[in-house]
Design a protein that fits this description.
Elements: H1 5-16, H2 22-25, E1 28-32, E2 35-38, H3 39-55, E3 60-63, E4 76-84, H4 86-90, E5 97-104, E6 107-115, E7 120-125, E8 130-132, E9 135-137, E10 149-152, H5 162-175, E11 178-180, H6 185-193, E12 199-206, H7 207-219, E13 223-225, E14 237-243, H8 245-255
Parallel strand pairs: 3-4, 10-11, 10-12
Antiparallel strand pairs: 1-2, 4-5, 5-6, 6-7, 7-8, 8-9, 12-14, 13-14
Helix pairs in contact: 1-3, 6-7
Length: about 260
Amino acid sequence: MMIEILKVQEIVREAAKIFSNRNAAEQIKQKGVFDYVTAIDEAVQEFIQKELSDLYPQIQFMGEEKDNSDIDMSGQVWVLDPVDGTTNLIHDYQNSAISLALIDNSEIILGIIYNPFSDEMFYAEKDKGSFLNGKRIYVSDAEQMKDSLISVGTSPYFKEEAEQNFMRFASVFKECQDIRRCGSASLDLANVACGRIDAYMENHLKIWDYAAGTLLVREANGEVYNYKGEKLFMELNGNIVAGNKNIAKILIGKYFK
């Protein structure tokens, strides 16, 4: 089936207008320890699900804010994170995004990440390259850690792993130019894809956190691995090392094996 990517982008742009509703951002429910959902998350997901269902009724829909137990990953599935960076949104940190992917038989064939605060629309289709606002993008060409900027995710729902995580971050920090903490996995992956950062790593990500960004990085000539150094497949929960081919391999070889 042909997907009209421009129409899908317009649906995402329209949904993102909801981000500006600060009253809705302050309507917060706690799903778990340090895990929150706002009225914006729910409204964005409801809007996108309806619009996509109207356009492509035969495609399944997986969203962060719904029960996905009936999803058959051997078919076609939309995978949505309606607000990647909910904690950022709650604090009006303005570093959140909508992340939408289309998966066909566990293979990512389309990815869209939209940051409404910067009006940056990242998108990729399998074997057609990665783009930012219509311009082709590529990962960086850094070859050594001393030339690299690395983004890390702190896995805030798993604070019992903080000591182990931060020991690894400290080791990486000593070798690279500097480290960054974005608070949105999809934007970290998008920033790898366009060469702003050279690599990104985080554990305990959900498929809606990384699906779209994984395609962006791969179509921009980068690599995405799990912590074992295997090319990342579509696990519902995943550990991510993404980057240009040089830095990603260095990180895997030195800090994860």
